[in-house]
Specification:
- The complex is a heterodimer of chains A (about 70) and B (about 250).
- Chain A has about 70 residues and is mainly alpha-helical.
- Chain A has one domain.
- Chain A is built from 3 helices and no strands.
- Chain A is flat and about 50 Å long.
- With about 250 residues, chain B is mostly helical.
- Chain B has one domain.
- Chain B is built from 8 helices and no strands.
- In chain B, α3 packs antiparallel against α7.
- The two termini of chain B are about 35 Å apart.
- The chains are: A mainly alpha (about 70), B mainly alpha (about 250).
- Chains A and B meet through α1, α2 and α3 of A and α3, α5, α7 and α8 of B.
Amino acid sequence: MSRWPRAVAAFGYEFVVGETPELAIGVALLIVAAWALARSRSPIGFWFIPGAVTLLLVLSLWRGTAQARK
Amino acid sequence: MTGTVLVALAVFAASAVEMVEALTIVLAAGLTRGWRSALEGAAAALACLVVVVAVFGPALIHYVPINVLRVVIGSLLLVLGLQWLRKAILRASGYKPKHDEDAIYRREVERLSNLPHAGSGRDAIGFAISFKGVLLEGMEVVMIVLTLGLSSGHLLVASLAALAAVVGVSGVGIAVSRQLREVPENAMKLAVGLMLVSFGSFWGGEGAGVRWPGSDLFLLVLLAGYVAVTWIAVRLLSRAAPAGPVGAVG
């Protein structure tokens, strides 16, 4: 790979994933789950995303505080 | 209307935060390597950023279906917003040291002063440091302008809000010069994180097929909910925070 595409890919990875891979993976999973729920016309629809985002933030904060204590 | 105002506020605050960081680098480069090269570097980077918005903005609107755009953009906003919010909560509760622009400024000045000068005329190091600093900090602003502007259909409003922040922060920054510590950066980062997460949830959900009760007004419900969660998180974490400073400044 030449220098430019490699640098752009590295920047994109650092920008989206960086030191919090749990957030990138979690958001991807929650959007797919929201799409599946919306297609199945599930009644839990609109509160699923805020609930999942809150859970994701709590998990990431827990990881952040554990790293800070080390 | 609610969405438009929130978009403008979010873009303005995000751009202001990033501009403070870019300004630290430009001031350090200007003072040590000469103002001409530092300002030319900053101007060249700003021109590049404007070109990116002008090229990618209209192209994305015309060629990508709105629901696909909303899912991708909503996901990006959620990731970016959660990163900002996490960092700001950890800083507010004492788990991470606050971003000290004055310390960064002093470090940059010391580092740049020790590098050899080119003599008279343009200084390549000053230009490159300033260009790179503004470009890297500005790319995050470009992402926010594009994502918020495209999803809301107000790319122009988002671009103007970013421009207003660039002009405003540059003016204030030059006036206060070396007192960048006074800028309430963490509070601004917290507010932007909350808005990005609210917009990300709203548009990501809409693109995925979720129907929000009350349409655009539900954005305020999301924002209020995330504010409450953040407040509780800061309170709980502050009680359990370690006594001394943790980690590195950055």
